[in-house]
Amino acid sequence: YMIINTDAQALVTCDVPLKMRIGDGLTMGKGVGGNPELGMKSAEESREELYDVIRDADMVFVAAGMGGGTGTGAAPVIAEIARETGALTVGVVTRPFAFEGKRRADAAEEGIQRLKEHVDTLLVIPNERLHIICEEEITAQNAFLMADDVLRMGVQSIAELITVPGEINLDFADVQSIMQNSGPAWMSIGWGVG
């Protein structure tokens, strides 16, 4: 896994071992202030470096919380680069909660539409739907943690189709034949006791 961001402080607080800061000339490591246009320009500025880290991958997951600056603006550029390398490219993104406001929702929708053009498969997780599976009132911080966990489960479930042996054994070619150029995807999560 690799985390890509424009914000140096956000990268420091993340415990992912592989980190890449993009758009240094534009942002000087200070982030893009929620501006997707600057997020896109930051990815374009670092296009060569992004290509270098992606070029040998067979499959690339582009995971982002849409509606902000870096994720919304950079995700389509990163996905475009991944597709250029020939990698199976899967977008897994979240749509903002209603309490985050119309401006963020509009930015997210625009970013999702741009991302859709550059991925083989796109899974959009509407954060607002998380209230349905949550049994009690939760804080905004816990709501965001829950959204991150659902996004992680989406990526992990696809990756484990290939990496974890099961009753029906799937390899990369199987997953590729299903997901390549397939468009929108849906995910359901369930649990039970008994």
Note down, in words, how this protein is organized.
The protein is of the alpha/beta class and 194 residues long. The chain has a single domain (2-185), classed as Rossmann fold, CATH 3.40.50.1440. The chain contains nine helices and six strands. It has helices at 8-13, 24-27, 36-45, 47-54, 70-84, 102-116, 130-133, 140-163, 172-179, and strands spanning 2-5, 18-21, 59-65, 88-95, 121-126, 183-185. It has a four-stranded parallel beta sheet. A two-stranded parallel sheet has the order 1-2. Helix 5 (70-84) links the parallel strand 3 (59-65) and strand 4 (88-95). Helix 3 (36-45) runs parallel beside helix 5, helix 4 (47-54) packs across helix 5 (70-84) and helix 5 (70-84) packs parallel to helix 6 (102-116). The protein is globular, with a radius of gyration of 17 Å. The N and C termini lie far apart (35 Å).
Task: Give me the secondary-structure topology.
Layout (H helix, E strand, L loop, with lengths): L1 E4 L2 H6 L4 E4 L2 H4 L8 H10 L1 H8 L4 E7 L4 H15 L3 E8 L6 H15 L4 E6 L3 H4 L6 H24 L8 H8 L3 E3 L9
Parallel strand pairs: 1-2, 3-4, 4-5, 5-6
Helix pairs in contact: 3-5, 4-5, 5-6
Q: What is the topology, as strand order, of the major beta sheet?
A: 3-4-5-6
Q: Stretches where pLDDT falls below 50 for ≥5 residues? A: none
Q: Kindly provide the radius of gyration, computed on alpha-carbon positions and rounded to a whole number of angstroms.
A: 17 Å
Q: What is the helix fraction of residues, given as a range?
A: 40-55%
Distance separating the two termini? 35 Å
Total DSSP E strands: 6
Encode the helix/strand succession as letters: EHEHHHEHEHEHHHE
- Name of the CATH class: Alpha Beta
When the domains are counted, the total is 1
Mean pLDDT level: 86
